[in-house]
Prior knowledge:
The protein is an alpha+beta fold.
Amino acid sequence: MKKFFQIIIITDKGKVRRIIISRLKWNLIKFAGWAFLMLILITIGILSLNINTAKLIKENYELKKKLAELKKIENEIIEFRRVKNELYLALGIDKMPKDSILYQQTNAPDLLEQIDTPFGLPINGIITREHSKDHIGVDIALSKNSFIYATAIGKVEKIDSNSQFGIHIWLSHNKGYKTLYAHLSKVMVGKGDSVKRGQVIGFSGSSGHSTGPHLHYEVWKDNQPIDPLLLR
């Protein structure tokens, strides 16, 4: 086995040059060549990977940005619908909102909407105090700013505020009936307005002599108090 390689080079002038390389050096040259080639390939791979990574990072950023914009639009739509529904309810445009007492008591809300004497309660909630000799009407615990609905067709007789009932509304109805809605946070009707059964007339609160958000509701007939729980 040869222990060296001989490279013969003939120049353009016809001269012959001989280069003798030992087998060890030749192997080292081949190894260095392969190593250089691998280094080039690895460098190209890393550059390509960095380019792709940068592209993915940019695309991910753009995607997050678009998702944030979509979320913002979604929240704006939800807020718009909420405000729209509140306005519709407050103005009585939406006669039968899904949480209205009309839906809660019957499958035929159109019939109950025509009732002109008090029926049912102005809102669903926990009754914390019932009607008695010492306490006219009922107290209904509920969240602040909940919708308060008229329990019958009627007219706004009085809107007032005092230390006992806070902000409150008196509605007059047919057959000598009157209803009181007290401790409100806001009123959505005016004196003399005609109201429909199930129409929002105000929002619950804790005004007046109150320990927390609730509605005080009374029913009167011919100037005599009646237990509201009997009218449902």
